[in-house]
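Re-run with default settings, no changes from the original entry. Doing this only to confirm the output is reproducible before filing.
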Amino acid sequence: MVNRGGRPPKPTNVVPFKGDGDPAEDEAARKRRSELAIRRATELRPKWLSPAARKIWDNEAPTLTDVAVNRLHRHHADQFGLYCMAFAELLYLEKDIAKNGHSYKTGAGRNGDQERGRPAVAQRNKAFEKCVQLGAYFGKTPYTERHINTLPQGDLFDDADNADNKDFG
């Protein structure tokens, strides 16, 4: 390591990040961003969602439409709607299982008194699998969240597409 004497230089060309200033400005910017995400999520919400799925959409979609995340677009709305439907079904089945139990007794029959699993348990397991599968497309699991590229790659021809045709002869 080379020891260079003297005071370290003070860079004059450092530009502070946006948001490094007034906390009131930061809070106002966060509020505007949140309102924009909620408005965008409401615009994208499919009309065919059940009331329970609509609550899930209204709770989770703004996070995905936030400009920092940007994972929910118009052409993905139906897919995320299916996720919300599966999640609503999962919650309904969880309540049913909590109320009625995991199994039932058949009663005295030809094979005696047997304990069997309720169909709601199998349906709940299937709904859970659907939630994990559909949620993975939107980074709803820790693994997929780490592996989804949130930054758009951009377009090689953006400047040419936005330019006037007269500039090109």
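The helical segments are 23-44, 51-65, 77-100, 119-136, 142-147, 158-162. The first helix runs from residue 23 to 44.
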